[in-house]
Design a protein that fits this description.
The chain has 133 residues and is α+β, with helices and mostly antiparallel strands. It is 47% helix and 24% strand.
């Protein structure tokens, strides 16, 4: 392929990507930025199929559409994260070597922990990547 065409194609792709990133988020997908609280990655130790130690990494956030509950969640951020860390670490400890993580069970347990930490329902746990490395 001609280098000039390849460079031109790369520039077009880069400008299209930056234009898409600059566009505001639509209401049809994802949580609105105002109600989303990102809790970053949470890790837990697992035993891999080879017998070596591994890490379960879970990217997690919370969507809190209720304004009053969002204020409670923002002030209880460290306690919320601590409860989620306990859930992920106990979940990781219960995984058998070589077994894939049961994401439905993990999300159910995390949702229960969030409801317990906030004192009531109304916040929704959003999982990103769940992987064992």
């Amino acid at each position: 392929m001609d280098r000039r065409a390849l460079i031109g194609l790369a520039l077009v792709a880069a400008s299209a990507g930056s234009a898409a990133a600059a566009a505001p988020a639509s209401d049809d997908g994802g949580a609105p930025a105002a109600s989303y609280i990102n809790l970053n990655s949470i890790n837990g130790s697992v035993t891999r199929a080879s017998g070596r130690r591994g890490i379960l990494t879970v990217d997690v956030g919370v969507d809190v559409p209720d304004v009053d509950l969002r204020a409670v969640a923002a002030s209880a951020g460290p306690r919320l994260r601590a409860q989620m860390v306990q859930v992920v670490q106990s979940f990781a400890a219960s995984l058998r070597p070589g077994e894939p993580p049961d994401v439905h069970r993990l999300s159910r347990d995390l949702q229960f922990a969030v409801n317990q930490a906030l004192g009531r329902r109304g916040a929704r746990v959003l999982l990103g990547t769940v992987m064992v490395v």
